[in-house]
Amino acid sequence: MDSSSFSSLRAYLRALSHTPTRLARRALSISTSYDEMSHVRARSGTTMRKTLRWYDLVSLGIGGMVGAGVFVTTGRATRLYAGPAVLLSYAIAGLCALLSAFCYTEFAVDMPVAGGAFSYLRVTFGEFAAFMTGANLVVDYVLSNAAVARGFTAYLGAAIGISSSKWRLTVPSFPDGFNKIDVVAVAVVLLITLVICYSTRESSVVNMILTALHILFIAFVIMVGFWRGSWKNFTEPANPENPGGFFPHGAAGVFKGAAYVYLSYIGYDAVSTMAEEVKDPVRDIPVGVSGSVIIVTVLYCLMAASMTKLLPYDMIDAEAPFSAAFSGKSDGWGWVSRVIGVGASFGILTSLLVAMLGQARYMCVIGRSNVVPSWFARVHPRTSTPVNASAFLGIFTAAIALFADLDVLLNLVSIGTLFVFYMVANAVIYRRYVAAGTSNPWPTLSFLCSFSFTAMMFTLIWKFVPTGGAKAGMLSVSGIIAIAILQLFHCMVPQVRKPEFWGVPFMPWIPSISIFLNVFLLGSLDGPSYVRFAFFSAVAVLFYVFYSVHASFDAEGDGSFTAKNGEIHVDSKGIEDQTFKV
User: Fold this and answer.
1) Domain count of the chain?
2) What are the transmembrane regions (predicted)?
3) Which of 543, 297, 523 is nearest to 422 (CA)?
4) What is the arithmetic mean of pLDDT over 283-303?
């Protein structure tokens, strides 16, 4: 295209000279549901085949959440934070996850496209905010998947009694952290890449089989724990000098434990990226997303109770609680630790499969918006899958997993993902109370900013102020202010949009609670997480300024983008091209 900003070096330099003007035009440009469901989706050529039902989504959600991380989080949260009350920590964290899942569900039902949070933010806060969140999500997926793939080698080795060091090749000339070549991890990533490229339906079947096997192993661990354990371990520590009772560290310990184990619920967001391939979005998405979160919460609570019944909380191994409880036993139960290793291996495969499905669909829809090369947006006409995005990210993940010894816990997700959860909760409120061009956005924006600021103050007080009466008073005041701000907004600002099919109940309370909790959890992360987030965000900003804004501007000029403000496109039960006026 002659008018392209990238047709020649001269054209590109000319485009760079117009960067401020183009940024002003494109950075805050808002897409519409109609565009996302029609013109933008058409850029992929072939449409993705609608083959998934509610039980596929439930299975994908369980597979994405219940990875090997739960075998780690339970021990640390019990030993260091909550004690026997860790099952309440899991219940609280599950409630938080469910509130956030509601926000995703409203968008996914109304706009069933493969872009997940990227698309939701693009129709709410504009192109730049969507690109920043999408870029961080994709990088987060790739790095986490590489770490999980290398973890598969360790758990598989534990399952068959062979040290993972024997499966990795050490190259002394390479720097530390990059000198252990993991061929098994690469093979696993490439094999899963082939599966997700071949068919989404077959990928779902594979996931259901692996998830069923994983749940069987979890059920076995739960039964063994309840069978061999003692109820006195819920109140009596092994060392009488340690705090006793069901709440050895008080309510604060329970909430600290909830903040820690919440990261074990990450994974349901990947289900929202499958919305474009769901047969009946209105029925299947709410059941699939919420149902998977509820089932996982029950499983986690039972696992926590089983572990607590098996051992006093101060004897639980913080790093590998279940396998350590049985390894080295002289009473014939040492084999259980190998069974746990097998179950964890299945959990790694399911979480890796779901995450790689999600990352490919994020990249596909980002490619549709032209902020990355549109080559990523192509859907293969025979398989109806985003082959280009799947293959590229699969090879990239495999390359990182081959060399990089990523010291990341299997349950740990970067600040980027929690930030996206925070943004989606803000977006669902904004979209309910603001209609582009017809209502004043400032009351809603003022509420979102002031409420987030109050949540930040609460978090900082919780984290840095010493325990005592002053801290309790400051926390109470912050909580009362947050409730007052929320109630004032609820009474004074009317909703301008009602969801046609499914919406978050008790608006704006549920998404506001989600905002508050996500800010609180963001405050629980360590310094290196913020450093990594800042680094990747800076790289993303540079990429947007030097490429994305110009590609997006070119697409706008050649008619790839159209504006249909005020129209909401709904795709339900196979009905295409239906619009509703707001």
Assistant:
1) 1
2) 54-73, 85-107, 119-139, 151-169, 181-198, 205-226, 246-265, 285-305, 335-358, 387-404, 410-430, 442-462, 468-489, 501-523, 529-547
3) 523
4) 92
